[in-house]
Structures are given as structure tokens and as C-alpha cells.
């Protein structure tokens, strides 16, 4: 039985990923700090459900705390590492940038140092579509330059890509960075639009619609994202042999076993259409409070997922209508509304 270390295991994506890995027969060590960025009760409930499985072990520690990860690697020597733990949220990074520095940069450094000492077969680290920043040519492709991040959150995630590349080059650590696009679904984060909109609509309160509704997002259903991560575990990057070039369309580094892969639905959906899907699922109309775009936000995202498909044969496919309906059904059941 192979062991997978998942950081951020009690988070939204982490919960679904750990559930999938346990189902597939892995032993899973879940590391999570259980921070109060949003309602800790959601994280506690996710973790409680994971602990029902005999092959899941929970470790509640901060990744940036010195020696936490080194000790864990020394004790468990994980075969795979999937690094999801991070301080999330574009707008919050304007208010509390230090938490992003500590969790995203220092935490990733601690992880890379532990992997250097006890190398796993493959490391998969979460980045974000926000790394594309000010890019306007879409759909976003992994080989595009991504030099102009629009928020400190995005800047820290882009920095972790470079940090991981340097360790992959220097120490031969196989690393896949995955950039995910607006992930949503049941058990989602309360600070995300779907959760906030659904809650407000069911409580007969107006919703804040930024950029006056002129926003587009590549909404990706959480189980589609997890399927992509699971399949990428087996697509271990290898440093190109001397004299060999990088295949066309591949983001593989020419000097390291490192690549970055988009995981998105390959569809850019208008925010107004997303809201209409929530209205249909709830059976209620939303009162819309139109507002200007917020600092750090980008007006649109759209993934080219061709590399994911060429590496794994898979492409996300859940429609916004189906995904939103599943979320609203979960929300009503969980909160009894």
C-alpha cells in the first residue's frame, strides 16, 4: 500500500482528493492546520468523515512551522505528496498579506526541504489560474508567459512554481504544478461566490455582483479537478535527455523533471449565466447589487486543457448547470433550508 501525504486535507479540495485516494487503496496522511479563515466547523466535519476510514491519518499542524514536515517525512517517507495547503483568497491577500507569505512561501519551502531529504516518487503542488494575471489572450496555455500577477495571492503561488522548479533542477525531484480554475461544488468554501450567492438568495438578501456582472470564469467542478490530479499522479515528469527538445505544447522544463498543467473545464462562463444557474437550482430570483471590479480581480479566465488530456486522456466535463444543482442540494441538506 503506497502512502500519499496530502497537505490541506480538511479543506474543500483536500477532502474530495483524500476521499478519492482512500477509495483507490492508498494510505493517506492528511496534514491541516484547521485555521479559522472560514468556518472551522466545515473543516472539522470533513476531517471527521475522513477519519472514518482506517487508512486515513490526520495531523493537525501548520506546514510553515519548522521541523513539522521534516519530521513527518522522516517518519512516513511518503511515496507521493500532494500539496494543497495555502492561504487562499485574492481579496484577503490585500488585507493580510503576511499570512500568504508565511503559509504559501515559507510552508512550501519547508515542504521542498523535507522532500529534498526524503524524496518521494512524485510531488504535485497546487498553483492557480490567477498566476496568468494580466494575460488577455485566451484560452490560457501553460507555455504562455505569466509575469504580471494582479494580487499578492497570485504572486505567492507563482513564486512557489519557481521555487519548486529550482528544487526539481538541483535535486532531481519530479514535480507537477497544477493550475486550477475556479473550483466549486458541495462542501465548498463560504468565501467563494457560489456559497455566498446561494446563502444570500435563500435568505432573501441581495448579492454583490462585481464588475457590473461583466465577469467570466472557467468554473471547474471539484470532482473533475480531483480526477485530473489523480491521473496526473501517474504522469511523472522526466528531465529531457541531453540533445532532446521539449515536445510541442508541453510545459516540461528543458532542465528539470518539472511541468505545469492547467486543470479547467475549458469553458468561460459569464457570471450572469452562473447566477441564473443558481436561481434555477434554488427556485428563487436574485436581487443583484452591481458593483465595480475589486482590486486584484481579473475580468476573465479560460483554460486550455489540451496538455492535461494528452498526458492523461482526461478532460473535465461537468456542466455548470449540473455542478451548481449538486451544490445547492448539498447546501439545503447540510444547513436544513
UniProtKB/TrEMBL annotation:
Alphabetized SUPFAM superfamilies for the sequence: NAD(P)-binding Rossmann-fold domains (SSF51735)
Keyword Lipid metabolism: no
Record's keyword annotation contains Ribonucleoprotein: no
Keyword entries, A-Z: NAD
Ranges for domain NAD-dependent epimerase/dehydratase: 4-235
InterPro entries noted in UniProt: Epimerase_deHydtase, NAD(P)-bd_dom_sf
Source taxon at top rank: Bacteria
Protein name: GDP-mannose 4,6-dehydratase
Amino acid at each position: 500500500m503506497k502512502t500519499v501525504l496530502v497537505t490541506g486535507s480538511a479543506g474543500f479540495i483536500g477532502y474530495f482528493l483524500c476521499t478519492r485516494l482512500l477509495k483507490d487503496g492508498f494510505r493517506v496522511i492528511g496534514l491541516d492546520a484547521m485555521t479559522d479563515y472560514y468556518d472551522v466547523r466545515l473543516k472539522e466535519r470533513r476531517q471527521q468523515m475522513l477519519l472514518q476510514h482506517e487508512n486515513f491519518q490526520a495531523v493537525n499542524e501548520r506546514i510553515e512551522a519548522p521541523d513539522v514536515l521534516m519530521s513527518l517525512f522522516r517518519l512516513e517517507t511518503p511515496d507521493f505528496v500532494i500539496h494543497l495547503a495555502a492561504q487562499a483568497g485574492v481579496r484577503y491577500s490585500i488585507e493580510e498579506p503576511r499570512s500568504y507569505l508565511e503559509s504559501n512561501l515559507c510552508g512550501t519551502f519547508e515542504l521542498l526541504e523535507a522532500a529534498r531529504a526524503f524524496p518521494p516518487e512524485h510531488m504535485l503542488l497546487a498553483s492557480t489560474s490567477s498566476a496568468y494575471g494580466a494575460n488577455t489572450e485566451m484560452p490560457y496555455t501553460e507555455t504562455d508567459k505569466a509575469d504580471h500577477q494582479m494580487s499578492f495571492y497570485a504572486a505567492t503561488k507563482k513564486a512557489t512554481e519557481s521555487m519548486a522548479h529550482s528544487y526539481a533542477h538541483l535535486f532531481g525531484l519530479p514535480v507537477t504544478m497544477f493550475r486550477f480554475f475556479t473550483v466549486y461544488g458541495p462542501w465548498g468554501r463560504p468565501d467563494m461566490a457560489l456559497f455566498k450567492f446561494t446563502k444570500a438568495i435563500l435568505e432573501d438578501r441581495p448579492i454583490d455582483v462585481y464588475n457590473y456582472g461583466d465577469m467570466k470564469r472557467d468554473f471547474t467542478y471539484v470532482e473533475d479537478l480531483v480526477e485530473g490530479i489523480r491521473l496526473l499522479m501517474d504522469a511523472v515528469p522526466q528531465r529531457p535527455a541531453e540533445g532532446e527538445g521539449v515536445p510541442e505544447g508541453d510545459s516540461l522544463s528543458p532542465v528539470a523533471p518539472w511541468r505545469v498543467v492547467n486543470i479547467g473545464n475549458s469553458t468561460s462562463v459569464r457570471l450572469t449565466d452562473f447566477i441564473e444557474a443558481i436561481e434555477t437550482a434554488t427556485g428563487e430570483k436574485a436581487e443583484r447589487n452591481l458593483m465595480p471590479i475589486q482590486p486584484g480581480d481579473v475580468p476573465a479566465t479560460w483554460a486550455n486543457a489540451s496538455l492535461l488530456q494528452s498526458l492523461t486522456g482526461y478532460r473535465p466535463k461537468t456542466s455548470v448547470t449540473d455542478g451548481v444543482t449538486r451544490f445547492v442540494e448539498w447546501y439545503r441538506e447540510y444547513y436544513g433550508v
